[in-house]
Amino acid sequence: MSKALRYFLLLAAVIYFVFFFIFTFHHAENAPFIDDYDGLFDFLIAYLSADTLERKLHFLVRQHNEHRIAFARLITLIYYYIADGINLKYLIMISSLNLLILWGIMAKVMYSIRRDLLALIPLVFLLFHFQHYANIFWAECSLQNLSVACMGVASIWMSVQPGRAHRLAALVLAIATTFSSGSGMSIWFVLCLVFILSFQWKSLL
């Protein structure tokens, strides 16, 4: 492949990457939709009204349909204290960073297999697209689904890195994954398989 074509493909990937975030920011709305009401706003009202730490923790991890969405609520709460209010548009943009972290982990793995920047280009188009538009433009859905995917992948990646610190980080991320969405509980099955296949028997105890 010629040098000019390589540079063109890399530039196209960068332009598309920037376009994705500009388009998302331009079209994201600060308007609640369905689960935003009971999943985020109702939680925030209940949490701020609670008079004990036990009650506050209860509202943080309280069941939301078939899910525990403590991580999404925690991000919402932190944003509330920082900005002194809630703007769903900015929560959507914060959640979009999960895709960036996902790309970073996958790109690192891909580059370790094939040290060629062109190998990273397909990841841009596979992750940063609008086919799963609800996960992009719906705040509660985005905070829940993108976070559980990001932390789940990060947990698995940490679990295969050498050293106890990485395994501890994998455990912390797995706990966060569990309380991000109903599907987050499956991370424990995956981690058990990872430890078994890598013969890390002591890590299972």
Task: Summarize the structure in words.
With 205 residues, this protein is an all-alpha fold. 72% of the residues lie in helices and 2% in strands. The chain has 10 helices and 2 strands; from the N terminus they run αααββααααααα. It has helices at 3-27, 35-49, 53-61, 70-83, 88-113, 121-127, 134-137, 139-159, 164-178, 187-197, and strands at residues 63-64, 67-68. Strands 1-2 form a two-stranded antiparallel ribbon. The N and C termini lie far apart (51 Å). The mean pLDDT is 87.
Brief summary:
Helix content is 72%, strand content 2%.
Low-confidence segments, given as residue ranges, are: none
Taking all Cα atoms into account, the compactness measure Rg is 19 Å
The number of helices is 10
Mean pLDDT: 87
Strand order, sheet with most strands: 1-2
Main sheet: strands, sense, barrel? 2 strands, antiparallel
Query: Percent of residues in beta strands?
Result: under 5%
Amino-to-carboxy terminus distance: 51 Å
Q: Tally the beta strands.
A: 2
SSE sequence, one letter per element: HHHEEHHHHHHH
Helix amount, in percent?
Answer: over 70%
Name the overall outline. Answer: flat
Give the tags:
205 residues; mainly alpha; two-stranded antiparallel ribbon; 72% helix
Topology:
Elements: H1 3-27, H2 35-49, H3 53-61, E1 63-64, E2 67-68, H4 70-83, H5 88-113, H6 121-127, H7 134-137, H8 139-159, H9 164-178, H10 187-197
Antiparallel strand pairs: 1-2
Helix pairs in contact: 2-3, 2-4, 5-8, 8-9, 8-10
